[in-house]
Write a structure and sequence with these properties.
heterodimer; A: 311 residues; alpha/beta; seven-stranded parallel beta sheet; five-stranded parallel beta sheet; globular; B: 262 residues; nine-stranded mixed beta sheet; 6 helices; 15 strands; 25% helix; binds flavin-adenine dinucleotide
């Protein structure tokens, strides 16, 4: 059987999450097709076709797909299910919104947030904020699976010997009453949380959005992405999409520096698989120290400028 | 043009309290929830609160709160009634239900209730699936807005701001529609004692899966449950200098090239 990956892109390039999903899909050891929906997709479809390891690119190009809503995509993808044993998506906000809608139309449950593919129908996934790991078997004929990208890696950038076949889909647009109103994207020149090698994260103790400049200064010297605890996001110090944790982003960089973050289980759920964890907190009893490789019991307002100055 | 007052259905789940750290059973069959403090899933609390606010704003006329589970989940239904929901419905079920089961049950309930808005939590903090709302919307063939951080109802339309990767996305959709709640949508209130007393007299119906002609799905089997690999606490360093030189010498860490001491 075959695997279908639902690609996520910004109309110019595939998102890193989709490449990681391709890496995960290769573990299933069967032919892989990639489904791309959007507007003006010719170039992106061609670029995708040159990535090694892809059998076919299914390209659905329509001006209404400039904003590809799940209500439109799900019925179209569910209709392809007889050709595929696996439909894989990244566990991004796009994938989480779309995968269950596809699965329900296929009459099956989805497996969310897979961190390990044991076999063609057995997976590991975290439950209870990562405090337990479930091994599940999926007996459905067509399995809908989302991939936690922090647990897999993208294949090395190889170009296919000959490009994959591009199949243009011409499909009638499913009806939906959903209408785009507006989008506010947080613009940043820093690396993305999902793919950064180093993340500097600030918590409630940073105290204000103005003080977050201390975090940005260190991050910029390190070439790092910036993250935050929920408390910092709720207090309005920083944008919501930078929240790390059970209900935010799950990350696993080489180095995670937690600053003024206590280490609630919901926060740990999002970063405890980082290779090296540094915690800076003025409370020696803070639970974050129980997962940190290196800890500094210190005031962040003294420590941050000192660290930045040494870079 | 006048509009009929909208009906909202809020689905709530009884789960382990979010402050409690779960233990895995010695035989690895599942987690051990015996003698564990149980509460309403935090995202469901936010859904209840949002429905109550819509009612207080005169946009919603009636709030029906549904929970699927053993008799004990009536406790969470009563909590929702105390917060301001009008009536409760327990769907009796002693075995765990999958997201698709819940979606199918709510779809059946919708055939009788004809609700305009479904408010659900974006995920439950036990199974962490984040699937049910989207599945319900698929089965009802209606629009969905997941991870809502702002909900506005106007002329039988819902305008919802969603938390997405990279920022916020606002969509407009006609009703009926499914909305799943994110943490920043609102801050749930605490129920006052008189409201808790009043809630005991609000109607709470019980239905069985047989009443709804639902057969539970079996496609996902739980094979085993393990504890995650535990990280060891590392070392406490004494100064910024020591921290920086330790990081420079850690083979797992790539400090940037412009590093002063590199
Ligand atoms: C359903 C649910 C989901 C959640 N999801 C998430 C999630 O995804 N991500 C998340 O992060 N949280 C999440 N939370 C919230 C979580 O429970 C904690 O409340 C939150 O992580 C706390 O953030 P914090 O560590 O920044 O704040 P606090 O817990 O207040 O910690 C602040 C820390 O800063 C230290 N400090 C104070 N002053 C200084 C100083 N001058 N220098 C150095 N250190 C100092 C203190 O000692 C303390 O340890 C969730 C909660 C719920 C209920």
């Amino acid at each position: 059987m075959k695997t279908l990956i639902i690609a996520e892109h910004n109309h110019h390039a595939l998102k890193a999450d989709t490449l990681v999903t391709l890496g995960a899909a290769q573990q299933l050891g069967q032919p892989i097709d990639v489904f791309i929906a959007g507007h003006d997709m010719a170039q992106l479809s061609q670029d995708t076709a040159t990535i090694a390891g892809i059998d076919r690119v299914l390209s659905w190009d329509h001006e209404a797909l400039a904003m590809p809503f799940s209500e439109i995509l799900a019925p179209v993808i569910a209709n392809l299910r007889s050709q595929y044993s696996h439909i894989l998506l990244a566990s991004s906000s796009f994938g989480k919104d779309l995968a269950p809608r596809i699965a329900a139309l296929c009459g099956v449950n989805a497996v969310s947030d897979v961190i390990d593919i044991i076999s063609a129908n057995q997976y590991k996934r975290p439950i209870y904020a990562g405090n337990a790991i479930a091994t599940v078997q999926n007996n459905a004929a067509c399995q809908v699976v989302t991939i936690r990208t922090s647990a897999f890696s993208a294949p090395s950038h190889e170009t296919a010997a000959s490009p994959a076949h591009i199949q243009a889909l011409s499909i009638e647009l499913p009806d939906t009453s959903v209408r785009f109103v507006e989008q506010t994207l947080s613009e940043s020149s820093r690396p993305e949380l999902n793919s950064a090698e180093i993340i500097v994260s600030g918590g409630r103790a940073v105290g204000s959005d103005a003080n977050f400049s201390l975090i940005y200064d260190l991050a910029d010297k390190l070439g790092a992405a910036v993250g935050a605890s929920r408390a910092a996001v709720d207090a309005g110090y920083i944008a919501n999409d930078l929240q790390v944790g059970q209900t935010g982003k799950v990350v696993a960089p080489s180095l995670y520096i937690a600053i003024g973050i206590s280490g609630a289980i919901q926060h740990l759920a999002g970063m405890k698989d980082s290779k090296v964890i540094v915690a800076i907190n003025n409370d020696p009893e803070a639970p974050i120290f129980s997962v940190a490789d290196y800890g500094l019991v210190a005031d962040l307002f003294e420590t941050l400028p000192a660290m930045t100055a040494r870079l | 043009m006048t509009h009929h007052p909208l009906k909202a259905i809020v689905a709530v789940k009884r789960v382990i309290d979010y402050n409690v750290k779960v233990r895995v059973k010695a035989d690895r069959s599942d987690v051990d929830l015996s003698n564990t403090k149980m509460s309403m899933n935090p995202f469901c609390e936010i859904a209840v609160e949002e429905a109550v606010r819509l009612k207080e704003a005169g946009l919603v006329g009636e709030i029906v709160v549904v929970s699927i589970g053993p008799k004990s989940c009536q406790e969470q239904i009563r909590s929702a009634l105390a917060l301001g929901a009008d009536r409760g419905l327990q769907v009796e079920c002693d075995t765990p239900v999958s997201p698709l089961d819940v979606a199918k049950i709510l779809q059946k309930i919708q055939q009788e209730e004809n609700a305009d808005i479904f408010l659900l939590g974006k995920q439950s903090i036990d199974a962490d699936n984040n699937q049910t709302g989207q599945m319900l919307a698929a089965l009802l063939d209606c629009p969905q807005a997941t991870c809502a951080s702002r909900v506005h109802i106007e002329h039988n339309k819902a305008i919802v701001t969603r938390e997405v990767d990279g920022g916020l996305l606002t969509v407009e959709m006609s009703l009926p529609a499914v909305i799943t709640t994110d943490l920043r949508l609102n801050e749930p209130r605490f129920a006052a004692l008189p409201k808790i007393m009043q809630a005991k007299r609000k109607p709470l119906a019980v239905k069985t899966l047989a009443d709804l002609a639902i057969e539970l799905t079996t496609d996902i089997e739980l094979i085993s449950v393990d504890s995650p690999t535990q990280r060891q606490a590392g070392v406490i360093l004494s100064s910024v200098d020591e921290l920086m030189s330790t990081l420079r010498n850690d083979p797992n860490v790539q400090m940037p090239k412009h590093d002063k001491e590199a």
